[in-house]
């Protein structure tokens, strides 16, 4: 018996056994769904499967909402939520990604060529189903003795959410049309749960009136997020990251026992892209879980060692996510520099910065130099006066970075100048002995930028000159007479107008201070 015959039979039974005011088939919905599932599983060709899905859409559109979802009449004694959950899961299984047995956790894009169309067809079915299920909330069972169970729509939310999140973004198993359909489905999920956005759907409302579905989503994903299973489905890690990033504090703390181990497992992979993804998860956890909970059971210390090991990599993309995460984690592990006590003993801030400066001093890759330079100023700000411990190596790093052009962005030199500004402000009592070295490097940079004929935009050159001038002005406040003696000779022999203009600005400022 095919699906069209099932629909015909339902219509005949409806005409024979019901009146015009209550158009309900006389068989329970579980029997109809069971027959549909059997037909769908038996279909082998894509064309036949697509035809059955089309009939399912027609069936759901025409069927009575009361018969589909109410636990009374023909459905009395049935667990409607479980029945529909089984049915939806059987449809979603049709779109499941091919199992990956490779250690890389990724398959060729050709392996996913059938998935987008399947996902789009299933999404169209789920859109109709959720619309019907949402309408059921406004109906009451015809038998007043029947106590309504949990809404079928609420039962379906977690599994449908994972399905929509799987096809929501640009991945090898999605196309523009399948992503568009998935976005519509996610919007309908939010609307069905009477929420304003995905965050409220996952976390619940702030007034505590409703509970979010994030816990149920994690429970469904738990078997796939184990050490030996998370690579079997390429979408698992992406769905986990996307849903995790939607959950801020204070809701994330409740789920820490589930999200923390999974994030560590992903970050500990040998592939850089997985490490980056895992560290992004860990950084979100650090930012959205109270420090006390992170320190409990030595979690923060475990995370520190995991991140510290990543600092030995030479991959710029990984270092870019590790350094901000490490900086925020150190706030959890260490007291602020102004509360460090007396004497101020070296701590993890010093350990991390020492390693960073050592790598910066030897690094020759422009991309990696930019990443290190971009993340160095925050470390100086956090250490404050304690940066004086590292001035010897930091001076070599600053001078070395200012000597190397990284046009056209000039990002490395720009951030190193910001680092120097911050260092002068915080460690000013130790700057005077290094005056001549720093001034020489700054004046050389002034000349290099002013005579630069590369593709560097003029706005970037102006910004570099402005920061050089700021550094010289800060030095003038500390060592006015010594600096004036050095710059006076340079200014008198300089033939470049831009360099003379910057030096004149500094000298004029020193005259005003006198």
From TrEMBL:
Annotated organism of origin: Polypterus senegalus
Protein name as annotated: TTI2 protein
Domain of life: Eukaryota
Higher taxonomy: Eukaryota, Metazoa, Chordata, Craniata, Vertebrata
Family per similarity comment: Belongs to the TTI2 family.
């Amino acid at each position: 018996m095919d699906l069209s015959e099932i629909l015909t039979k339902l219509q005949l039974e409806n005409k024979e056994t019901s009146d015009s005011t209550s158009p309900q088939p006389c068989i329970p919905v579980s029997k109809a769904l069971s027959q549909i599932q059997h037909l769908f599983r038996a279909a082998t060709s894509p064309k036949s499967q697509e035809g059955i899905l089309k009939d399912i859409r027609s069936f759901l559109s025409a069927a009575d909402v009361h018969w589909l979802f109410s636990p009374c009449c023909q459905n009395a004694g049935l667990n409607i939520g479980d029945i529909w959950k089984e049915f939806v899961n059987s449809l979603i299984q049709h779109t499941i990604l091919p199992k990956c047995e490779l250690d890389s956790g990724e398959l060729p894009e050709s392996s996913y060529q059938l998935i987008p169309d399947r996902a789009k067809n299933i999404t169209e079915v789920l859109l109709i189903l959720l619309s019907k299920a949402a309408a059921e909330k406004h109906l009451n069972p015809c038998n007043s003795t029947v106590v309504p169970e949990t809404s079928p729509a609420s039962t379906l939310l977690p599994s449908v959410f994972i399905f929509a999140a799987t096809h929501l973004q640009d991945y090898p198993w999605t196309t523009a049309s399948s992503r568009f359909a998935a976005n519509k489905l996610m919007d309908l999920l939010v609307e069905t749960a009477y929420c304003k956005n995905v965050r409220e759907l996952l976390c619940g409302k702030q007034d505590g009136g409703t509970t979010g579905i994030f816990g149920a989503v994690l429970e469904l994903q738990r078997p796939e997020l184990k050490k030996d299973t998370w690579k079997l489905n390429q979408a698992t890690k992406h769905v986990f990251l996307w849903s995790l990033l939607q959950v801020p504090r204070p809701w994330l703390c409740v789920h820490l026992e589930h999200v923390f181990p999974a994030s560590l497992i992903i970050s500990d992979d040998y592939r850089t892209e997985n490490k980056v993804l895992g560290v992004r998860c860990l950084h979100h956890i650090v930012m959205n879980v109270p420090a006390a909970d992170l320190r409990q059971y030595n979690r923060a210390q475990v995370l520190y060692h995991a991140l510290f090991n990543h600092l030995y990599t030479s991959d710029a993309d990984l270092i870019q996510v590790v350094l901000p995460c490490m900086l925020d984690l150190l706030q959890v592990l260490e007291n602020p520099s102004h509360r460090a006590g007396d004497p101020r003993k070296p701590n993890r801030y010093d350990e991390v910065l020492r390693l960073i400066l050592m790598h910066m001093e030897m690094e020759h890759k422009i991309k990696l130099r930019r990443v290190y330079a971009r993340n160095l100023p925050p470390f100086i700000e956090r250490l404050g006066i304690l940066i004086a411990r590292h001035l010897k190596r930091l001076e070599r790093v600053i001078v070395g970075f200012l000597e190397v052009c990284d046009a056209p962005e000039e990002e490395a030199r720009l951030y190193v100048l910001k680092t120097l500004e911050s260092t002068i402000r915080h460690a000013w009592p130790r700057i005077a002995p290094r005056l001549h070295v720093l001034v020489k490097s700054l004046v050389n940079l002034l000349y290099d930028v002013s005579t630069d004929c590369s593709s560097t935009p003029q706005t970037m050159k102006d910004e570099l000159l402005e920061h050089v001038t700021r550094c010289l002005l800060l030095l003038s406040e500390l060592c006015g007479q010594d600096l004036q003696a050095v710059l006076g000779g340079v200014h008198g022999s300089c033939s470049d107008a831009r360099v003379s203009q910057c030096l004149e600005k500094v000298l004029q400022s020193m005259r005003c201070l006198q």
